[in-house]
Amino acid sequence: MSTQDGGRTEPVRSAGPTPRIPDCPLARTVQAIGPWWTLEILHEVFEGRGRFEAIRRNLATPADVLADRIADLTARGLLEAEEASPESGDPEYRATDLGRALRPLILVMAAWGNHRLAPEDRSLVLVDVRTGVAVDPVVVDRLTGQPVDTADHVFAPGPKASELIVARYPEIPRRP
C-alpha cells in the first residue's frame, strides 16, 4: 500500500469471507483465492504476460493498485518476482507451485462460463496449441481417469473432519 509520502508499506491481506465451517475445503479454496482479481492476475501470468507493465496494460489497472495486488499475491505465496532487468526496470512475475495449482480451476471456470454459449458466441476458448482445436476441460479422478461430475461421486467426511462436517456428510463405506 502507498503511504502519503509515496513510500510502500506491507499490503493488507485481503479479507476473504469467514467460513461457516472452518475445515471445509471449499471455504479454504475461496480464502486462498481471495478477491476476484486474483484469478485475473494469475491468468495473465499463466498466459505468459507476467511483466508488471503487461499485466497493468491488459487489465487496465492503475500501477499503484496493481502493485498492491501483486504484493498481496506474493505475500500469500501465489506469485514470486524475478529481478527486473536493468534496461527495462519492469519486474516479471511467475506463479509459485501454489499459484500454478490454481490453473486447472481457472480453466474449468472458463469452460463453465462458456458452457451455455453457442460455440460462435464464445469470446475466449481453450485450445490445444499442437492442433488448434478447442478443448473442453473436465475434472477426472487421477487414478481411474473417470469424470467425477456425476451423482456417483459425493463428498464424505475425511480423517480429520470436524463435528460439523461429520454431521453434514454421511460416511460412505468402502467397498471391495
Question: Which descriptors would you attach to this protein?
Answer:
two-stranded antiparallel sheet; 35% helix; disordered N terminus
Structure commentary:
The chain is mainly α and 176 residues long. The protein contains seven helices and two strands, in the order H-H-H-H-E-E-H-H-H. It has helices at residues 25-33, 37-46, 52-59, 63-75, 97-100, 103-114, 163-168, and strands at 79-82, 92-95. The protein has a two-stranded antiparallel sheet with strand order 1-2.
Radius of gyration (CA) equals 20 Å
Could you tell me the mean pLDDT? 87
What is the count of helical runs? 7
Termini Cα gap: 56 Å
Order of helices and strands, N to C? HHHHEEHHH
Order of the strands making up the biggest sheet = 1-2
Question: How much helix is in the residues?
Answer: 25-40%
Please provide the count of β strands.
Answer: 2
Gist?
This protein has helices at 25-33, 37-46, 52-59, 63-75, 97-100, 103-114, 163-168, and strands at residues 79-82, 92-95.
Question: What is the element layout, followed by pairings?
Answer:
Elements: H1 25-33, H2 37-46, H3 52-59, H4 63-75, E1 79-82, E2 92-95, H5 97-100, H6 103-114, H7 163-168
Antiparallel strand pairs: 1-2
Helix pairs in contact: 2-3
